[in-house]
Amino acid sequence: MNLSQSLTMSSSLALVLLMLTFHNASAELFTALADMEELLETESVLIANLDNYIRVQEDKLNQLRRRSAEYQREHTEAAKDVGTYLSNPVNAFLLTKRLTTDWREVENLMSYDVGSEFLENVTNYRDVLKFPSDEDLNGAAVALMRLQDTYKLDTASVARGELNGIQYSTEMTAGDCFELGRQTYLNGDYYHTVLWMREAMDRLSHEVNRTTTKADVLEYLAFSTFKQGNVHTALLMTNELLELVPDHERAVGNKVYYEKELEKEAKQKALRGDDGSVDVPVDTTTIRTAKDNPHVYDSSERKLYEQLCRGEAERSVTETSKLRCRYVINKSPFLKIAPLKLEEANLKPYIVIYHDVMSDAEMEVVKRLAKPRFRRATVQNYKTGELEVANYRISKSAWLKDQEHPYIKAIGERVEDMTGLTMSTAEELQVVNYGIGGHYEPHFDFARREETNAFKSLGTGNRIATVLFYMSEVTQGGATVFPSLRLALWPKKGAAAFWFNLHASGQGDYSTRHAACPVLTGTKWVSNKWIHERGQEFRRPCELKPDHPEEF
């Protein structure tokens, strides 16, 4: 068997095996770590393909080296005494043979592209393996920026592979930092572009094998600096870029523009006075009004949300001293022999954590059933009631019915024991896996009065309560936080949080507005049951006097 035949057989066999093992993938892999795990399998296949490519290239070069050594040895011998060498008829024949049939074999070997089969493999793999898209790359970059902002991570530390002082990965190269900055630039995020382009510039000075040039970095860094309002520094960087690449078309145009802008600034400053002061308008873009999208929140809530995610907003001793832990049976006959461990997290509204309410076996079955059905998690449009994807919710979810597995049915029955509410009108069990920096910004689980179309198709009323199961330990981040209560619930595998979304009167409890903090490290799996009003009339009856605030 010759070299080309062995290559064709090995590559074909590998492709057949892959087609039996893998399936075509959709995009948005960055929204769930469960999907991204398969990318490591993709990388493993590609590495093996690359190794085989290198091996056959080396085999080809080794054959050529052996031929060259043989020819050089004969040529050196002939050069010692050309006449004597050629007077030997055997030598004359061999020289002629080397320059005819032998050399044609060498030419064929030199021209034969041993890598074509492996290049074709890569093309075919894209049909059967999961490959990330440009959208995934951009989504991963946005997630890193979200983590950097939420957890106040230093750029240089992240580039070193450190997250909150813990070394998790190898260092990023200047090229890695450059690409991260380029992705934020494409999103119009010039603040982060400047941070990461500066980091790329710092790393360029220490690297030997560079894939990125100083000119590449300066092009993005100069313009992003200008977009942040620093025209003078942008001009200095542009001049530096032109020293490296004098005919850089964009830089030439930008230089002229920056110089004109600086002339305008100088004239305006002269008109305003010596100090150059000017009235600064108030930024009202983060102030939410009643008519605005309820998923847009003001700057004070954002600040508190991020503090809670970092574990910085502590509750007072007066609040925490009233909280208790105990075993409960909740009027359930079954719980008399197997009481639940309850930990109070907040008294008003009443938020509790049940510990050890889902077994490892149940969690594995739930994950196994959910993975093949994962789709990008959606939210209801607050105006139309239609489901849609949103940047403030980054995860993938699936829905499981009780009849699909005895464990799913048992979980539903357990929720009924935990809450005292009927599951006859509850939604199916939703299973969620969060992706890179996966999060769900502050939101309500219940529909507000203006959301007239929400849950209309279900015909079961509003979401009266939420039960949230934690199905994994999260190394860092991933807390469930209630900003108005200054409360953070940290994921504990096998535990479940429970709270009422509505007052007993049926009005929404706005203090239950909550969020899922970005996952910094680790993976976060949760599942939840959303329980509806219909059927709860005698299980949670209205009180004689409305228990909701007067503004309703």
How is the biggest beta sheet arranged? 9 strands, antiparallel
Tell me the radius of gyration: 33 Å
> Would you report the number of β strands?
19
- The number of distinct helices, counting runs of at least 4 residues, comes to 16
Low confidence ranges: 1-26, 273-296
Strand order of the largest sheet: 3-4-5-16-12-19-10-9-6
**Helix/strand structural class:** alpha+beta
Q: Output mean pLDDT.
A: 87
Report how far the terminal alpha carbons are from each other: 84 Å
Strand content: 5-15%
Helix content: 40-55%
From the spread of the alpha carbons, the general shape counts as extended
Question: What labels would you give this structure?
Answer:
4-stranded antiparallel β-sheet, extended, alpha+beta, 9-stranded antiparallel β-sheet, 552 residues, disordered N terminus, 16 helices
Can you tell me about this structure?
Keywords: Coiled coil, Dioxygenase, Endoplasmic reticulum, Glycoprotein, Iron, Metal-binding, Oxidoreductase, Signal, Vitamin C. The protein is an alpha+beta fold. 45% of the residues lie in helices and 14% in strands. It contains 16 helices and 19 strands. It has helices at 3-21, 33-80, 82-87, 89-111, 116-128, 134-150, 155-159, 174-186, 190-204, 214-227, 231-244, 249-272, 299-309, 317-320, 360-370, 406-419; strands spanning 162-163, 166-167, 325-328, 340-346, 351-355, 375-376, 379-380, 387-388, 395-400, 429-434, 440-443, 463-470, 476-477, 480-482, 487-489, 496-500, 514-516, 519-521, 525-532. It has a nine-stranded antiparallel sheet, covered by helices on one side. It has a four-stranded antiparallel sheet with strand order 11-17-14-15, covered by helices on one side. A hairpin with a 2-residue loop joins strand 1 and strand 2. Helix 1 (3-21) runs parallel beside helix 5. The N and C termini lie far apart (84 Å). The model is unreliable at 1-26 and 273-296 (pLDDT under 50).
